[in-house]
Specification:
The chain is an alpha+beta fold. It has helices at residues 3-22, 26-40, 53-57, 73-79, 86-94, 176-185, 187-213, 216-232, 248-255, 259-271, 287-294, and strands spanning 99-102, 107-109, 117-123, 126-131, 137-143, 162-165, 169-175, 237-238, 241-243, 275-278, 281-284. Strand 10 (275-278) and strand 11 form a beta hairpin.
Length: 310
């Protein structure tokens, strides 16, 4: 494929996307966005069926030191529940010196990999997922800035699921020995990371309840409420508005529904004036109503301080 052909194709598809958006064709628009993201990605010719983990790791080249200028989202998140000293924060920042980037819709870690380092999301969204032989995919967790992809990499022999980037993603590539030394020498950090692990388990239990007994409407409402709380915890929510770069197929794979069903539920919630979703942004217009629909209780996110347990 020539560069000229790709440029013409992108232009035509973006024109078609505008037409879909204009006429409210939400599902077709979401699917077309995935095609555009794939066209915009620049695949590495080294990637193939016989590639090694070292080859795949090269797809996320190291950035220049201190390139990531934003406030460290891990420190923001942990500081909400634990008083961290300046030395604690300096230690967390120091382990994030090797910063890498990967494009949207690409794997950060593959199922079966033996990662030698810990991956910490600094910017962008990723997900844990599993694919069956028939090609069906289930998203089992959404990873936001400040989340670890593989916190216990030193314990597990290999990954039993994959980590995929939903958007272009920036992550810290943390040396495992450095990480273990930091947690061993800094009790406050150790306790805060145990808290983060317990929150992850709480989120997983909540997702199991959604898949088991919540209706489609309740599942969507509950996930929106959860994401709003999680984005608030890293200072990325403002007045009920936050980024949610998930397509309807993404939501379907996370909530155990079809994309058509997701489209129907989202349109109904927007019609009721409860929320608005436009171009990757969610605005919660009526939080009490959304909370009531979801029967949302944020206690499983354990946002209270854990300092009292010192």
């Amino acid at each position: 494929m020539s560069d000229a052909w790709l440029a013409d194709t992108r232009s035509e598809l973006k024109t078609l996307l505008d037409v879909f958006d204009l006429h409210g064709k939400t599902l077709a628009s979401a699917q077309l966005k995935i095609v555009l993201e794939l066209l915009d990605a620049k695949p590495d010719k080294k990637l193939g069926h016989g590639d090694t983990y070292e080859d795949r790791r090269s797809l996320a080249p190291a950035m220049e030191p201190a390139t990531f200028k934003a406030k460290n989202p891990l420190i923001t998140k942990l500081s909400r529940v634990m008083t961290l000293s300046q030395d604690d924060c300096a230690g967390l920042q120091a382990m994030c010196q090797d910063v890498r980037q990967t494009g949207a819709r690409r794997d950060i870690i593959r199922d079966g990999d033996r990662p030698e380092r810990v991956h910490l999301i600094l910017n962008g969204w990723a997900c844990r997922y599993k694919i069956l032989k028939n090609g069906k995919r289930q998203i089992t967790a959404l990873l936001l800035p400040g989340d670890f992809c593989d916190l216990h990499v030193g314990v597990l022999d290999r990954m039993d699921h994959a980590i995929g980037a939903i958007t272009s993603t920036t992550f810290a590539y943390v040396d495992r020995l450095q990480f273990e030394e930091l947690t061993r020498s800094r009790p406050a950090i150790m306790r805060a990371l145990w808290w983060a692990t317990l929150v992850d388990e709480g989120v997983l239990r909540s997702w199991l309840v959604s898949l088991g007994v919540r209706t489609a409407r309740e599942r969507v409402a509950h996930l929106i409420c959860e994401l709003r709380e999680r984005m608030r915890n890293i200072d990325r929510e403002d007045g009920g508005q936050f980024a949610m770069p998930l397509t309807q197929p993404d939501l379907a794979e996370a909530l155990g529904l079809t994309a058509v069903h997701i489209n129907r539920v989202v349109r109904q919630l927007m019609k009721e004036g409860v929320l608005e979703i436009r171009k990757g942004q969610v605005t919660v217009l009526d939080l009490p109503a959304l909370t009531e629909i979801a029967e949302f209780d944020p206690s499983y996110l354990h946002a209270q301080s854990i300092d009292k347990h010192k």
